[in-house]
Amino acid sequence: xxxxxxxxxxxxxxxxxxxxxxxxxxxxxxxxxxxxxxxxxxxxxxxxxxxxxxxxxxxxxxxxxxxxxxxxxxxxxxxxxxxxxxxxxxxxxxxxxxxxxxxxxxxxxxxxxxxxxxxxxxxxxxxxxxxxxxxxxxxxxxxxxxxxxxxxxxxxxxxxxxxxxxxxxxxxxxxxxxxxxxxxxxxxxxxxxxxxxxxxxxxxxxxxxxxxx
Length: 213
Fold this sequence. Notes:
The chain has helices at 17-20, 34-48, 61-74, 97-112, 125-140, 155-166, and strands spanning 7-12, 54-57, 78-80, 148-153, 184-190, 193-201. By secondary structure, it is an alpha/beta fold. A 6-stranded mixed β-sheet has the order 3-2-4-1-5-6, with helices on both faces. The longest helix has 16 residues, at 97-112. The chain starts with 6 loop residues before the first strand and ends in a 12-residue tail after the last strand.
């Protein structure tokens, strides 16, 4: 794909009730709130102006419903793939942030230090990247030159996928920071591979001029 000018827009789903309650969702299938639907509609109008060529999405309803808003304004079909689901986190799922720290404090601290941790007995972050990144790349390969792919997914899955595509060591993936509901990150092809152009954006990307100055 080198030199084809491709662009990836990795888009987190809109708000859910569990987001408001700070509950760890993981692979639990939680729907959007009314606010989440409104967020998706607003973001979809902005992303549509970037003229995407294809949309793929997690099959969990919060991501699928988010992607559907972009499909409605672009006329594109959405391809759903379970490999784009959020990290499975076993016993952590459904717990609030405070409950996780109270019950699994050592495990939480190890994860935050960048150690490979099966949170709640679930997936490693590297395993999430192993399943999600190849799907993104496979669909990117189908794009026309200078094409744009929108990936509607989840915060953890997006972060690990970005880390993998940028070639970062997994210990440093956490340094990318999270995504707010219905915000997105943009990766573009540079001379040496993928390059992070925007992160946790909620407005349209602006051209970067003189970024080495």
